[in-house]
Design a protein that fits this description.
107 residues; Immunoglobulin-like; 1 helix; 7 strands; elongated
Length: 107
């Protein structure tokens, strides 16, 4: 097949692929990327009893482990809404571990 014949045969096929590709992409439904909410954790100010409250949100429901610089540590159950509360713990720096993720508590 000579060059002129190839261009006459292949040219429309190549052009059709450039037209069809965007149309195929446009026909696919758009699904926004799944973004997990960033987990957060905070401590209250020191209460009259010398303790603080921990609370958090944006976690996956199920167990998580809370540990702190004051020696407090333990498993907490994350509710279906992704939140938790731990009342009356010693003041300190706290971290929540769920799976391989660590969330530092602020406050």
């Amino acid at each position: 097949m000579n060059r002129r014949t190839r261009l006459l045969v292949l040219g429309p096929l190549v052009a059709a692929s450039f037209v069809a590709a965007p149309a195929a992409l446009a026909a696919a439904p758009y699904t926004p990327p799944t973004v997990l909410p960033a987990a957060t954790c905070s401590t209250s100010g020191v209460l009259d009893n010398g303790k603080v409250h921990l609370s958090g949100g944006g976690f996956t429901p199920g167990p998580a482990y809370v540990y702190g610089s004051a020696g407090f540590g333990g498993t907490v159950e994350i509710a279906q809404n992704g939140g938790f509360q731990v009342m009356n713990v010693p003041p300190g720096t706290y971290t929540v571990r769920q799976g391989g993720e660590l969330t530092q508590c602020s406050g």
